[in-house]
Every structure is written in structure tokens, then in C-alpha cells.
Specification:
Length: 622
């Protein structure tokens, strides 16, 4: 992409352009809303009075804030206060109209958050997670003296939802020890701060093929004991209604106007009045919305463009607001009324390149990859970036992202792979990630790599493997396990030494790792060793770039330092960038700096174009 020297590069414009999240509104005061924006250059929480049109910045911290909720009456903004991105902190609250912050629930020590539920009558349930206590839930009743512990378990769990009248609490838990398939317990909250179990929904215990269930929310009607839940009984996520008082379960036959069952994963939420559901459908890296009428089972598609819905909410006036984008089109908060609900201040970021769908035969089935080609040169083979998503229980989609767009601007093709372990392709695909952790995903990535080279898309000598979090882990593992396949490795906040990572990471991830590996490092050391990038560091043949947050609780810094120290001992070319934040940064300039360092590293280390390859390579102009 050619630009004037004095102009801000398009890739930087995309990062700097203000963005807004989908606004969340107060149940009993729908004109009061919260959203997150980077309008100041750092992602912070904003209050929006829709009746007056007034916007107000609520939080202002050096490393940003994103976790916040409104009280049902709209009077209070609750936000989670951690230390420089370490995710360990306490809830604070501030009046919606502005004023000083106060500790929201005095008496609770700092912890990792395990959810929050705010009742209409002032009831509060706070979920906490620590290495010492596991998961604990704490109840504070209006007028009560202080928070009372009502739940404790060493395995990870969290707050599901409070019923409309604050008498019932749904708890998502993994007491059975399977962090990938949760169960639900519903308890009645007594006036004295005690609890009594009302119902259990467990699709895991005693089953050869565990199925998960997850709380989607109680019906928004006084005295209604129906709970909307997601289940995997059919081998994918889909919703049903569970009356926790009677035990009755109501299946939801979701078929479109032509009578066809929706493929892929399906979720839902109650619409106001509880007579209809807002259905969210994920299939093959894209999403769409439907309205489902409970009385007659009618499913009606809502008019949304082809791409990805990054969240939706049904308003009391009958409209649906949703955050939408595609790989080519920047995100916007839209309404089914045909309007843009909330537009970020300033200019709209430059467009990018549409995504192509590619399906490749892999060892575990067909692998879906999303491919983007640069606008110049006209034909490949191109230097190619394989950008691997995190999670692992996540998936890449046809959605706007500034990172891939930056590589496209610099003449690279971009390939993103929804390897086994990714969501959105059915439970079997997600659950395939067991015991041979990391190695399974790399098999799928290798199959797509072979296609990219054979099809003429990618220059085999100029393939860059990169990703963040789990994608960073797969990057370091990939350049060790597949040393002849990649020219460079760029690992962002990665797992690098799995034994040490397990010892230092937050409890929620310990629980996930025990499920993935089938035990702890002490119980199955050979599995952790076989899946650890540190095991294969001697086989690394290419220059390595690593960036890491010094306060990261998910991929802690010590295990990265162990890997770097071994690279140094072996004399392997590498560069490391450490920044003062957690698992990524909420500061726009810091994000730009990190990507600029990655681009510079690739320019200096990527081999020259091979014969017949596109000539722009990493030398595309800024």
C-alpha cells in the first residue's frame, strides 16, 4: 500500500481509530448504559445517558479498564480494579452520574474474578478465585452486615445468574474436575445468608462422553423459575429451557423458515417479557441473529450483514442492537431498526481485505482456514503470516482485526486456522484437544501450510508463524516441532515452559490444563514435557521474537524467561520485548509499538523472495 511519507500509515490509523463495545444497559433503567472505548488512547469504561445523549468517562487508569457492570436500577457502575493488568483485584463502584469510587464489597480480599451478580433488591453475589481457596462465592443481602461465604470448592466455578426476585442463584461449576464441561447447581438464598440446593444439572459425572451445560440466564419475570441454559446433548452447543422448580426441560427445535435445522453452535438470551428469545447462531466463522417465539416455535431471521456479530442485546422497545464487523469492514454498533446506535468519535478506520474460506483435509477431519491476500502484487506466491488464534477454545472469524490488516498492508498474505480445539465446529472438534496438547493443533496447521504452498499462495521460504497467548504457545512449539516449516517465529504472551507455567498461572487455567492433559505435571509429567516448547528449543533453526507482559497471570513471565535463557545458552538468534502490563495491553500506543517491533524484526530477518515470488514482501511502504 503506497502512502505519502508524511501521512499516518493505514495500519496505524486502524489501531488509533476510536472503537466502542456493545452498550450494556440497566434492566430497570434502559436509558442508562455502559460501554468500553479507546477514545482517549486507552480502553476505559464510559457511562452513557441515552435520554440526554451525555457520555462520561468512568475509569481512568494507566493500563486501562474493561470489566464493568451496571446495577439493575442504573444508579451504580461497578468496575474491577486490578493492578497493571494482573487480573487480581477487587470490585469498586461509582455513581452513574459521577463521583468518588468506593470499595463495593468491603471485607473481601483481592482475588481473580469468578463472576458478579447484582439483584434488583440490592442483593450482591461476588465470585472469587485464588490459588489457596479455589472458587468461593460470597453473598451480601441488602442491610446485611457483610459478605457471607456461600460456596467453596477447589475446582474452578463461578456466578451464573440471580433470578429476577433474587431468591435463586445459578452456579456454574466444575466440581467433577472437567474444566471443559461445566455443570449447574441452583440454590435458594435464605434470609439469613444460608443456601439450600434446589436443582442440579450435570451432564458430566458418570458419563463416558461428557456434555457441558452453561447458565444463560433466568427469565426476566418476577417469580419465574425458568432458567435458559446451553447444552451439548446433540454434540454442539444449543439452548433449552429448564424450570428449576419442577425439573421440566423444554427443548427448542430451532428451524428456519424453510424448516432447516441451524447448523453450528447456537446460543440464546431472553427478550424482555420472556415470551421470545434472541438467538445467536455461529457457523463456519460467521454469525447471524434470529428471534424465536416460545408460543409457536417460530424462528425469524433478523437482517444482519454477512460477517460476525460480536454481541447482541434485545431492547425493551423490541429492537435488537448488535456489534458487527467483517474482515474488510470496521466494527459498528447497529440496530435492527436500520440505524447506527453508537458511533465512536473521530474518523472511521481504513477498510481492509475480504476473507476467503479454505477447507483442507487434515488428519482429524476438514480444517477451516481464513485467507486474505494483499492488494499488491497481484499474484503470489507471497510472504505469508500464519496468525494463530488463542484460547484454545476460541475461533477466528470473519471479523475486523487491525493486526492482520497491518500485515496485508505490508505485502503479506494472512492465513488463520481453526485447528482442532477451536469452537464453532461442534463438540467433537473442540474436545479433540486432549493429552497430545499443542501437537494436535500443529498437525492441522501443517495441513493448511501444505495447501498454502501447493496452491501458490505462500512462498515456502518466507512463512512466518505467529500468535498471541495460546497462539504464541503454538508458535514456539511449532518452530521447535516443525523446524523446517517456518522462516520466523513471533510469539506474543506465550506458554514457553509448560511445567513452570502451570506452577505460576492463575487457578482457572490450572483447572483447564488438568483437563487437557489428564492430570497435573506431577501426575502426567511426560505429557507436559511432550507439549512444552522448552523441550524442543534445541531444534529451533529460525530467529525468534517474543513479547511478554511482566504482570501476566495467564502466561507468567518466569516460564518465558526460562525459555529465553535456554535460547541464549544455545546461541539462537532471538529478541525479547517486556512491557509493564498483563496478558496484552489496553493502551493503543503500546499495541502499535509492539506491532512495529514485530514488523521491524521480520524486515531484518526474513529471507529474500525466492524465484517467482511476489516482490513486495516485508518491504511494503508505510
Amino acid at each position: 500500500m503506497s502512502e505519502e511519507k508524511s501521512a499516518v500509515p493505514a495500519w496505524e490509523q486502524r489501531f488509533r481509530a476510536a472503537r466502542v463495545s456493545l452498550p450494556d444497559w440497566a434492566d430497570d433503567a434502559p436509558d442508562r448504559a455502559l460501554y468500553v472505548s479507546n477514545a482517549t488512547g486507552t480502553y476505559e469504561v464510559y457511562a452513557w445517558d441515552r435520554a440526554t445523549g451525555a457520555h462520561r468517562q468512568v475509569t481512568d487508569r494507566p493500563n486501562g479498564t474493561t470489566d464493568a457492570e451496571l446495577s439493575p436500577d442504573g444508579d451504580w457502575v461497578w468496575w474491577f480494579d486490578d493492578h497493571d493488568g494482573d487480573e487480581f483485584g477487587v470490585w469498586r463502584r461509582q455513581p452513574f452520574a459521577g463521583g468518588p469510587d468506593e470499595e463495593a464489597v468491603p471485607g473481601l480480599a483481592a482475588s481473580y474474578s469468578a463472576g458478579l451478580a447484582l439483584g434488583r433488591d440490592g442483593t450482591v453475589v461476588v465470585g472469587r478465585s485464588t490459588d489457596e481457596d479455589g472458587t468461593t462465592l460470597h453473598l451480601r443481602r441488602p442491610g446485611g452486615a457483610g459478605p457471607v461465604e456461600i460456596y467453596r470448592h477447589e475446582e474452578y466455578g463461578g456466578v451464573g445468574d440471580l433470578s429476577h426476585d433474587s431468591t435463586l442463584l445459578a452456579i456454574d461449576h466444575t466440581e467433577h474436575g472437567d474444566a471443559m464441561h461445566s455443570a449447574i447447581r441452583v440454590v435458594r438464598l435464605t434470609g439469613t445468608g444460608g443456601v439450600e440446593t434446589v436443582a442440579e444439572l450435570d451432564e458430566v459425572t458418570g458419563r463416558d462422553e461428557p456434555r457441558g451445560v452453561a447458565c444463560l440466564g433466568f427469565a426476566p419475570v418476577e417469580g419465574d423459575t425458568r432458567l435458559l441454559v446451553a447444552h451439548q446433548r446433540t454434540g454442539r452447543w444449543e439452548p433449552m429451557i429448564w424450570d428449576v422448580a419442577t425439573g421440566a426441560e423444554t427443548a427448542l427445535p430451532l428451524r428456519d423458515e424453510q424448516g432447516r435445522e441451524l447448523p453450528g453452535d447456537v446460543s440464546a438470551q431472553w427478550r424482555p417479557g420472556a415470551g421470545e428469545l434472541l438467538v445467536e447462531h455461529e457457523y463456519e466463522a460467521r454469525s447471524e441473529l434470529f428471534s424465536y417465539t416460545l408460543a409457536d416455535g417460530r424462528l425469524t431471521r433478523l437482517d444482519t450483514p454477512r460477517g460476525t456479530v460480536g454481541g447482541a442485546t434485545a431492547r425493551p422497545d423490541g429492537t435488537v442492537e448488535y456489534l458487527w464487523s467483517s474482515a474488510a469492514e470496521p466494527s459498528a454498533v447497529r440496530s435492527t431498526a436500520g440505524t447506527v446506535v453508537l458511533r465512536a468519535p473521530g474518523s472511521v478506520p481504513p477498510r481492509s481485505v475480504p476473507v476467503e474460506d479454505v477447507w483442507v483435509d487434515g488428519p482429524g477431519g476438514r480444517v477451516h482456514a481464513l485467507v486474505q491476500r494483499p492488494t499488491a502484487p497481484a499474484h503470489g506466491p507471497y510472504p505469508t503470516v500464519f496468525e494463530i488464534h488463542g484460547g484454545p477454545t476460541y475461533h477466528d472469524s470473519d471479523a475486523f482485526a487491525a493486526g492482520p490488516a497491518a500485515w496485508l498492508d505490508h505485502g503479506f498474505a494472512v492465513v488463520r486456522v481453526n485447528y482442532r480445539g477451536s469452537t464453532g465446529y461442534g463438540q467433537a472438534w473442540t474436545d479433540a484437544l486432549h493429552e497430545r496438547v499443542g501437537l494436535i493443533e500443529l498437525e492441522d496447521i501443517a495441513a493448511v501450510r501444505e495447501w498454502a504452498v501447493a496452491s501458490g499462495l505462500a512462498d515456502p521460504a518466507r512463512l512466518v508463524l505467529t500468535g498471541g497467548s495460546w497462539g504464541g504457545y503454538l508458535t514456539l512449539l511449532g518452530i521447535g516441532v516443525q523446524p523446517g516449516s517456518w522462516a520466523l517465529g513471533l510469539a506474543v504472551v506465550p506458554v514457553a515452559d509448560y511445567h513452570t507455567a502451570y506452577a505460576d498461572e492463575m487457578e482457572a487455567l490450572k483447572s483447564l490444563d488438568r483437563t487437557l492433559f489428564g492430570g497435573t505435571p506431577e501426575e502426567v509429567p511426560e505429557r507436559f514435557t511432550a507439549s512444552s516448547p522448552l523441550t524442543y528449543v534445541e531444534q529451533v533453526r529460525v530467529p525468534v521474537y517474543i513479547s511478554a507482559g511482566v504482570n501476566d497471570p495467564r502466561c507468567p513471565i518466569r516460564q518465558i524467561e526460562n525459555y529465553v535463557e535456554r535460547l541464549e545458552e544455545l546461541g539462537k538468534p532471538h529478541e525479547v520485548y517486556r512491557y509493564d502490563a498483563g496478558h496484552g495491553s489496553l493502551v493503543v500506543e503500546e499495541r502499535i509499538k509492539q506491532l512495529r517491533l514485530e514488523i521491524d524484526f521480520v524486515r531484518r530477518h526474513l529471507p529474500a523472495a525466492s524465484a517467482g515470488a511476489g516482490a513486495s514482501g516485508a518491504g511494503g511502504t508505510e
